[in-house]
Amino acid sequence: MSKRTAESRVATDYRLSRRQFLIATGATIAAAACATPPAGQGAPTGGAPLGTVKLSAWTIGPDAPSYYRRDNLVAAADKLNAKLGSGTNVQVDATFESGGQWGDYLQKFTLAAEAKTSPDIILAGHENFAPWVGPGYIVPLDDLIAKYQSEGDVKDVIPTLWTAMKLKGKTYGIPQDTEARPMYYRKDLLAKMGWSKDMIERLPDAVKNGEFAWPDLVLWAKEAISKGLVEPGKGWYSRPSKGADIYMFYYQNGGEMQDNATAKLVITKDALLKHFQVHADAVLNDKIMTKTIYGMDAGKEWHPTVTDGKVLFYNAGTWTWKDWQATYKVAEQSLWDNVGFMLIPAAKRGGKPVTVSHPLAYAVTSNAKDKDLAFRLIANATTPDLNSKHSVTSAHLAVLTTQKDDPTYKQDKFLLATQYMLDYTKFIPNHPKFGIYDDVLYRFLGAVEQGQNTPAQAVDGAVKELQGQLGDELIVR
Q1: CATH of the domain at 127
Q2: Which end of the chain is more exposed for a tag (fewer CB within 10 A), N or C?
Q3: What b/e sequence results for 121-134 when a residue is b if at least 16 CB atoms lie within 10 Å of its CB, and e otherwise?
Q4: Model-level pTM?
Q5: Strands of 339-342's sheet in order across
Q6: Dist CA 257 CA 430 (whole Å)
Q7: Average per-residue pLDDT for the chain
Q8: Both 195 and 156 in a single domain?
Q9: Rounded to the nearest 5 degrees, what angle is found at the Cα of 126, between the Cα atoms of 184 and 315?
C-alpha cells in the first residue's frame, strides 16, 4: 500500500532548523497560555473552551521527505491561536513515522481506537477510513466543513478529491496530498526510432486527446525490441507489486470498483477480462514485458533498470521523479532530457486516458477532546503555503486549486507539468473489505502473467472467490 519510498532530504538548512524549533516549542505556544483566563473574560470565537487545549496527531511518510504532514499541523496552531484570541490556546503534539510499514501504523491506530487512547487527528490513505467508520473510530466532517468554511482553504480543495473522502455520502477526511501515476517513456529511445523532437514533445497531448492509444504503445514497444534498442521483455514495465497502479488498466477498459449508491464493491467482468488480457498479451503474446515483473524487487531491479534507460515505457508515481534523483542519483537535467511522462493511454483511439491517485488525508477521531478545534487545526494546515511546502519537498501534487498561484508551488516545473492529470484520475474504493478484493485480483493477475490461467479463467476464478468471501458486499456486472 505504501506509495512513497523516496528517502531524500531536499529541505534547506533553514527549513530543518525551523522545523525543529516548531516541534520543540509545541507550536510556539506562550507559557501564559496555560494560565486561567481573567475573571469575566468571554469565550473566544467559535465557543472554544478557555485555557490550553492539547491536541495530538499521528502522521506517517513512510518516505522521509513527507515530514510536512506533521509540521504543517504544528505550524497551523499559530494561525489558529491568532484567531482564537487570548482565552484559548491550542498546543499540538504531533508525531511522524518515517521508514516504517503502513500495516504496523494502521494496526497501532486500530488498537488505540479500541482502547480509547487514539490521538485527536490521524493521517491515513483515503481507503483506510472505511474500516474505521463502522466501529466509529473517526467522525464525519460534513457539519464541521460547513461550519468553518472560512477556516484555512478547505473550500478550495480540488473537487475531484472529495470523491475519495466520502463513504455513503458522508465526508471523513480532508485531503493532505495526492499524486498521479504517469506512464513514463524514454525520449532518447523514441528518437532512435525516428521520432522527431516535436513528435516526442507532443506525445502527452496526443495521449490526452486520444490520438495515441494503448495499441500504439504496444506497437512501439515491439518496434523498440525488434530494432534491438531494448531487450525482449523491456518494452513496458508495469508496477511490480500490489498497489493502486494496477487498476489503471482495469479503469482504462471501463471498469468500476464501487457503487455510488450502496458503497458496495463492484466487479465489471468485461473490463476485468480486458485488464487481464492487457497483461497476458504484454507478457506472453507480444513479449513486451518480462514474466519476472510479478514480484520483482523494486529497489534492486525495477528502478535501477528503468533509470539506466533500458525500458521504453514504464508506469510509476509522480513522487518517483524525486526518488530517482535522490535514491538512484539521476541528475534532474538528465531526466528532463531523456524522460517524458503522460497519462495511461486510452484503450482505443478516441477514448479517454486515465490515471489513479491515492490521496492521503487528515481525519478527526471519535476520541478527540474537542472535535471542533481538531477540525479547525486541520483546516488551518490546509492552505496554499503549507501544502505547497509539502508538495515541493516530497513531489506530491496540489490538493488546492489555489496552489497553482503559490510562489513555492510555481517554482516546481515537474508538479506544474503533471497537475492536469488529476482531471483524469480515478481512486481505489473506500470499503472495509477492499483488502480482500485487492488480494484476490492481484493474485489472479499473477496467474495470468505466469500463464497459469487464461484471462477468461482468471475472471471466472476471481469472481467466484470474491463472491464467496464478500457475499452481498460485491456487485458483479
Answers
A1: 3.40.190.10
A2: C
A3: bbbbbbbbbbbbbe
A4: 0.84
A5: 236-237, 313-315, 183-186, 339-342
A6: 10
A7: 90
A8: no
A9: 10
